[in-house]
């Protein structure tokens, strides 16, 4: 279902609501945080570079707060969650990296899987008792090119390919978002899990990339103001849990928000269960 030409001017009043946006010091996260603050939400910018976050927040309207969070480091994730008090209406896990060189995070994970998926997985699990409305996970149209190998999630047994690692991490995000909704439904929770993808948006993620996405951005991509619309739509509109929001334009790479259909792999409940259980083990192992 398309939202026609829905844009940030259509956002509802969010006064009294609290939102966390990860990666909110630049790009899609910055726009998301700014627009939610503009319509009254108290927005917590969860960022790696707090000095940069403070500069960005100072230019935003409304109530904002900057807190340190490095999704590539589970100790940072736990520290962020441990000091959280009170209700959290909406959690938006937006932060991510793309085409990272081969390496390991502080916890020994492949960088893109660790930062784009396992960090947000851990953060969501830790903050979920506080969430009153919804979790919005930012995926990518490139999830359709991803593949989840539960026996080698962190690319330890195969040659490293940065583009594949990114695609895999974005598929993991979407698999997780849909599995989270299954678990929320089974538990009788009113909290919703949704996902969104920004199409082909000109963000800093692509500055050093030579992938298909980077080459195509100049031809059919759009700016971050438009790229943030699916996330804003998923975070504020009355949508059922499990909704995936994309774009209604050319090859779904640009345009305005519309409900999209995840790939067959993303919808696989067996894969969802297996990835969840593996992620729990990996995160718990690093916590020890």
Short description:
The chain is of the alpha/beta class.
Keywords:
288 residues; alpha/beta; Rossmann fold; 8-stranded mixed beta sheet; 9 helices; 8 strands; 39% helix; 15% strand; globular
What profile does the largest beta sheet have?
8 strands, mixed
Topology as H/E string? EHEHEHEHEHEHHHEEH
Taken as a percent bin, the fraction of beta residues is: 5-15%
Kindly give the count of domains: 1
Given as residue ranges, the uncertain stretches (5+ residues, pLDDT < 50) are none
- The CATH superfamily bears the name NAD(P)-binding Rossmann-like Domain
Tally of individual helices: 9
Strand-pairing-aware structural class: alpha/beta
CATH class: Alpha Beta
- Name the overall outline: globular
Q: What spatial order of strands do you see in the largest sheet?
A: 3-2-1-4-5-6-7-8
Helix percentage range? 25-40%
CATH topology: Rossmann fold
Mean pLDDT: 92
Using only C-alpha atoms, the radius of gyration works out to 17 Å
What's the count of strands? 8
């Amino acid at each position: 279902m398309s939202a026609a030409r829905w844009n940030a001017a259509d956002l509802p009043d969010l006064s009294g609501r609290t939102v966390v946006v990860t990666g909110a010091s630049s790009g899609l996260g910055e726009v998301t945080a700014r627009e939610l603050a503009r319509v009254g939400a108290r927005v917590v910018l969860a960022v790696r570079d707090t000095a940069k976050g403070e500069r960005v927040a100072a230019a935003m309207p409304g109530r904002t707060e900057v807190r340190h969070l490095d999704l590539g480091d589970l100790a940072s994730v736990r520290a962020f969650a441990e000091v959280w008090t009170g209700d959290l209406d909406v959690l938006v896990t937006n932060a991510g990296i793309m085409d990272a060189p081969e390496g390991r995070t502080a916890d020994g994970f492949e960088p893109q899987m660790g930062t784009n998926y396992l960090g947000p997985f851990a953060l969501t699990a830790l903050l979920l008792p506080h969430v009153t409305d919804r979790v919005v996970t930012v995926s990518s149209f490139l999830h359709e090119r991803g593949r989840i190998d539960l026996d080698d999630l962190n690319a330890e047994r195969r040659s490293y390919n940065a583009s594949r690692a990114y695609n895999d991490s974005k598929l993991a995000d979407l698999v997780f978002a849909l599995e989270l909704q299954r678990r929320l439904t089974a538990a009788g929770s009113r909290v919703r899990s949704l996902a969104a993808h920004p199409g082909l948006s000109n963000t800093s993620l692509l500055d050093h990339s030579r992938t298909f996405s980077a080459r195509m951005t100049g031809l059919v991509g759009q700016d971050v103001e438009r790229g943030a619309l699916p996330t804003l739509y998923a975070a504020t509109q009355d949508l059922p849990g499990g909704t995936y929001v994309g774009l209604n334009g050319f090859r779904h790479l640009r345009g305005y928000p519309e409900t999209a259909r995840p790939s067959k792999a993303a919808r696989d409940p067996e894969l969802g269960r297996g990835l969840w259980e593996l992620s729990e083990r990996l995160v718990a192992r690093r916590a020890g």
